[in-house]
Amino acid sequence: MDTTKIEKNFKKLTSSNKIFESVLMIGNASGDFNFTREYKRDIDTPMLMASTTKLLTTTCIYALVQEGKLNLKDELSNYLSKEEISGLHVFKGKEYTFELTIEHLLSQTSGLPDFYLTGTKPVFSKVKDRDFSYSFEEELEWIKHMKARFIPGTKRKAYYSDVNFDLLGKIIEAANASTLQEAYEKYIFSPLNLKHTYLANTESDFIPHTYYKDQRLYRPLFIRSCYASGGGVTTARELMIFIKAFWKGELFDKTFFSKQAQSNPLQMSFYPIHYMGGYMKITASYPFGKKYTLVGHSGSTGAFAFYCLEKDLFIVGDVSQIASPSTGVRLAMRTVLAAE
After folding, report:
1. Ranges for the Beta-lactamase-related domain (predicted)?
2. CA-CA distance, 338 to 223, in Å (whole number)?
């Protein structure tokens, strides 16, 4: 493969005054093609997964469904108490909390609001200024004081919200009778022999830094609070191992993917990203050129892990910049288009 254009794109990205560290890895399913570029870090440097963590949570859900411990049609109220979730989803005066299913949460079609970027006091506006922690119970209270976006399962509608996956984390714990870290270990880390990937949840867990513009951010309290929606830490090398196993069916029956009829577009701020059963779907193309499909996930820190179906390429990396998380997505898209 001619990697000249890929190298040019990476050099252009890292020569800008907006990116201070970055890493990019590309590989194919057979393993006979590997390409790596590093900028002030390497493929074994710990990195924040941010929302790429959602792929770990998705893996556990599908593994538990495969074992018969869960059903995607199960209602949220089967796993969390009525007192805990009552009032979570109210749309135009009517409560839909007890109609929410695992499938709604997994596909971001619950209609639950987002506390990270929206609301009267978005979490993002606070975390870039200071470190703080929050509990799952506090997260639910934030959501209860916000307006739901639509009725669960409304056709052609999806709304990205971290609470969907944090609720899935609690469902995993209930179904597996374990902590979420133990579930990750059982279904992902141990089978793949990942030694440097973990859910950050204790004071002893190392928390990597990231950047907001030119400010180096270290937010251990916040990262340890992010739980099933964004609390993962990994390296580019191990993220590549994981994303290959995820799409090749090594962790669960990959026919789960073929059973998903359609993707749904997320809110406009996420354009052009669509969402499916626990992962993002993006179309990359030059004007009037051939289109390529990327499936996987990105995170608010600029971490990403995608698979291009048409070219059989896996692409992982990080741009470490929360002021512009879409930069990681654009790097993945440009990498696919440049791969010849």
Report:
1. 44-316
2. 34
When divided into structural domains, the chain yields a total of 1
Q: For the segment 22-64, what is each residue's pLDDT rounded down to a tens digit?
A: 999 999 988 888 999 999 999 999 999 999 999 999 999 999 9
Q: What is the CATH number of the domain that holds 106?
A: 3.40.710.10
Domain range for 94:
4-338
Distance CA 234, CA 241 (A): 11
35 Cβ contact list (under 8 Å, min separation 6): 1, 3, 6, 24, 25, 26, 27
Residue 220 CA neighbour count, 13 Å, CB half: 7
Q: pLDDT tens across 127-145, in order?
A: 989 999 999 999 999 999 9
* H or E, element range at 7: helix 4-14
Strand, coil or helix: 304: strand
Q: Put residue 214 in one of left, alpha, beta given phi > 0 → left and psi -120 to 50 → alpha.
A: alpha
Average pLDDT over residues 9-19: 94
- 336, 313 contact by CB (below 8 A): yes
Alpha helices in 121-225 (DSSP H): 123-127, 136-144, 162-176, 180-184, 190-192, 220-225
277 within 8 A of 211, measured Cβ to Cβ:
no
Q: Cα separation of 276 and 108, whole Å?
A: 8
